[in-house]
Amino acid sequence: MTYCVGLRIDRGLVFVSDTRTNAGVDDVAIFKKMHCWTRPGERVLVLLSAGNLATTQAVVSLLNERTKAPEERSATMLEVPSLYQAAKLVGDTVKEVIRQTAPEGQNADAFGASFILGGQIKGMEPRLFLIYPEGNFIEAGDDTPFFQIGETKYGKPILVRAHDAKMSFEETVKLLLVSFDSTLKSNLSVGMPLDLIFYERDTYAVSLERRIEADDPYFKAISDGWSSALKDAFRSLPDFSA
Amino acid sequence: MTYCVGLRIDRGLVFVSDTRTNAGVDDVAIFKKMHCWTRPGERVLVLLSAGNLATTQAVVSLLNERTKAPEERSATMLEVPSLYQAAKLVGDTVKEVIRQTAPEGQNADAFGASFILGGQIKGMEPRLFLIYPEGNFIEAGDDTPFFQIGETKYGKPILVRAHDAKMSFEETVKLLLVSFDSTLKSNLSVGMPLDLIFYERDTYAVSLERRIEADDPYFKAISDGWSSALKDAFRSLPDFSA
């Protein structure tokens, strides 16, 4: 499993992904699930991936190969004219990979992968997409300004309750780390370290990129603090009386 | 979907179940998922069910039919000598129902159902079991003194963090209602009203049985209070600094 979140705030976009992959509990490894394409001053695109690792790596390889040999390719992540076209490129690529892997017909269950794509291209607004294994995609709006992929359930309630578009970047990272902490505590297939990217709107450069290790002092403060804050919150409610 | 929890505390056993069944979002209904067998002064057994409604109703019908015509039946919920035998009876019955429904072999995916069974029979300790669609079962211990069936993920983190065997009954109901509130807010297929039973150890009678409607004042106090307590808890944590 995997847990990745992309979240839109007024100030920009924040992305966090875990790094654990597993093919059974006795076959775990660390792989980066966050990929970034930048042309400074013109565009930043961030891709988070969940699902079959062979599929997601093939998709990213194909996207990168296209980046490397532009004269032989018609579309690349650095050349697509819009975020919409970038989402379509990722969707077409994942469909192509799954079709090649399962030649008898697309088998999204076994080889499936989903993606969160966000970023900004000069002259346009920051945008955030969720791309399905079938290759189609949806865009985040004001009512639901975040997407989750992988193990989404444990970390969702706090996102729904505490998200606010006017949040600072610093509060947003706190919110995402609380959401990740709940997920990490409940599902062994989601694991540290985490990767974090903050993109501030209209800068066309990554504002902050950070790997958060298991012993990161801020992450430990959030993880321990959230446990005791939750218990205090629970204690503050009135007991049942029959 | 469904959400049911059975939880063991030092004082006894507490059970809560939702009542929503659905065969698609346009085909929802209210059915009780909590069944109770009592022989006052000698035994109390409570059964919570999740899964295919035809299967769970058939299981309860078979268990009740056996109760009604004991001279033709070898085992009944009111006659089994132990909770272990009661769990085995439920397990055998669900296997039998699934076998009859899917004659080509047991298809637990389509017709599956799982159960939480708890109670006490005179001379023995209160016990709590989780019964799988395959008919086998496990018993709650001191380390994991609760079982959930149905949509278990949203409501699990608070149970894990706040449970304490020394809790009063009144605190336990508060904990279970917080867990149900998180689940109700996140999964439309879990719905009000809720059914609640408290069994106090060594009484061999149901101490409290209550249906909690959507407009129940205590449930509303918990639901509203938990939202704001969570937000306060979140605000109390330090913001990230890059």
TrEMBL record, chains A, B:
In terms of InterPro entries, this protein maps to:
Ntn_hydrolases_N (IPR029055), Proteasome_sua/b (IPR001353), UCP009120_prtse (IPR016545)
Domain of life, source organism? Bacteria
Protein name according to UniProt: Peptidase
Q: Which organism is it from?
A: Nitratireductor thuwali
Lineage from the top down? Bacteria, Pseudomonadati, Pseudomonadota, Alphaproteobacteria, Hyphomicrobiales
